[in-house]
């Protein structure tokens, strides 16, 4: 994907599995930068929600991960690469309500099985790759002006 | 009138230029310049946190005074339920209302009655299909403004119904005009307010073009005279119309109790409210249906223009509610069961506009550049958030520098570094000798 402008803000975050204290900090930071550059608030909300769900997935399921946000003037791309158990059946994991989160996670109000479906719903482009025992990579793109289609 | 009206003001000769107000401001709207606290108007939400925090009492709120009553033929007081909490629970509301008549008002309409109408209207609203959950209460104007400036994406979650004060003002004016045959413009409607946020809502209404309230008078402004009048007024005159349901809105949780929806979240104190809204914006609070959010700790009883300590006010209010419940049950009185649609003034309502403050530039590329400058600058600042530069924290200074409104040497630590580097260079230079004198160089 080649963007017309070369100007991009890149934000990198290191995520640690089970670090619930820091949970959401990366997504909040991404949201703040989008507000600072004046992106429409409904678009920011979609980016923030998908970023948060993805960030939480790493914290709930994985051992560690890297999160990267590339903010262009017309779209934002967020990539998460984690080292973790991976997902054996991605199709199943994409179903609403399907969750492998243990009970203690659910008691905290997480792991309702809405994470991946929410990410798909909020983004314009969503890709997921996973290898069992190795980890999962998620890549999401949201256009800042919902009328333009990125990558075409 | 300028673009923004603010009721929070500075008493210049009292301001010492300390950074306490700037550091406590939830929207980072204050900078210290030239030894004085200055408000960035676009950012201020009139929450009154700076009034509460200033140790020199240099922050105040402009409110109207009783002298302003002279301009109108007929004056109605709209006491906030918080006013009752300023008095011991054994002083009857009837007596407090009589005292208000005694100090110059011609009639009374309790804001608690407005609260009862709004409670019923919210219940009806919850039944409609166009609701986006979680619903956020719009009763506290400082919270509504916080959403306008920092969480514009949550505007659609706000209850689209006027706050109790506005509803009370509308009903009171129409009623008095009918009853006494006075033109509505000749009637002064005066809200007895616990906070500057509501004062500002009168001058710059949220969700309507023009307020139904003529002016707001701080509780602290009338308290002294009311206290005297309470002793003098004859007992036994019945003036109270609102039930405990409406009166209870003064305490955090009172609104939720009146609305009675399940899965409520009650949050008070502006920084807590900010945290919760942050969570809502990230889609975290999926299990919550209704959020009652109040800018002051404890709810309206913690307002900056109140007299009584908020914990004392809370116990006063709880005891009073108990007394009212017992009395109403004995007399067979029940809380309001129905309301007229006209009380809500749906045709006067306007959309609540976003007022985003975080945007660094109208031009997205300039804004992106400023974000980069801000990030780089922030990495070089010490991160102590001391506030000596006059900005509330290092992040805010980095933003001010990116905006060209401050320089890196405004930071005392950066300044010290520069001085040290310069001093070192001077010492180095002072040790240098011309080759004609330098014995080592031969």
Automatic annotation (TrEMBL), chain A:
Keywords per UniProt: Transferase
Domain Histidine kinase/HSP90-like ATPase: 21-141
Coiled-coil features, chain-numbered ranges: none
GO molecular function: protein serine/threonine kinase activity
Transferase as UniProt keyword: yes
Enzyme Commission number(s): 2.7.11.1
The name this protein goes by in its record: Anti-sigma F factor
Organism of origin: bioreactor metagenome
Annotated gene: spoIIAB_2
From TrEMBL, chain B:
UniProtKB keywords: 4Fe-4S, Iron, Iron-sulfur, Metal-binding
Record GO terms (molecular function): 4 iron, 4 sulfur cluster binding; metal ion binding
Chain ranges of the 4Fe-4S ferredoxin-type domain: 6-35, 36-64
Domain 4Fe-4S stretches: 369-428
Keyword field contains Iron: yes
Pfam families xrefs: Fe_hyd_lg_C, Fer4_10, FeS
PANTHER family: ION-TRANSLOCATING OXIDOREDUCTASE COMPLEX SUBUNIT B (PTHR43560)
Protein name in the entry: Electron transport complex subunit RsxB
Gene, per the UniProt record: rsxB_5
